[in-house]
Amino acid sequence: MHKSFWEEKDFDVFTIDGLEKRMEALQARVQPKFELLGRLFADHLSSHGTDEFYPHVAKHARRTVNPPSDSWVAFAPAKRGYKALPHFQIGLWKTHLFIILAVIYENPDKKGIAERLSRQVNVLTDLPADYIVSGDHMKPEATAIGEAGKEGIEALLDRLQTVKKAEFLVGRHLDREAAVKMTEPEFLAYAEETINRLLPVYDIVIGRQ
Fold first, then answer.
1. C-alpha span between 106 and 174 (Å, rounded)
2. CATH at 43
3. How far is Cα 197 from Cα 201, in angstroms, rounded to an integer?
4. The whole model's pTM is what?
5. Which of 51, 103, 157, 194 has the CB geometry, 3.0–4.6 Å to 77, for a possible disulfide?
6. Is residue 1 assigned to a domain?
7. Dist CA 47 CA 56 (whole Å)
């Protein structure tokens, strides 16, 4: 029997009080898994043929008081830094796991990205209804595409063009209860399927399509 990839204690890291203790647990329990996913999916994304992707495990190095409420490994076609680029993330909140394509506020081309996605909005509306969209990577909540609909997605894209701090995230959330039941092969297949679904969106984001 295959063991699960994620465990309850991985999600429970984000309930530990204090920056130092939470970071110790994050580094011991979760970051090794992010490192593994980083190697696997950087190679997978590089094989897509746009660029060579590099993994970036969140270090939370600038924090001095508040412990992180989520953490992730990001993938971007740059060795140093990823926040200014469209990037993929696999990460955890205490309640759920996320696999997303993210355009966050540091990106200098948000207007162009929003325009390109607006012209081909069907690449988003055609995603499975349980995929999610969000306008803020700092919040765990998101809206299912089936619930947001075309109007909700277009509103997020309009905001991306006009509001300096606006962001756009699209991907998939998985409740922790479901995540801990998945064997390692099942989770890796789930993550690969999700990323593959998001690659056509990425191609439009970067102007490849």
1. 26
2. 3.30.930.20
3. 8
4. 0.95
5. 51
6. no
7. 18
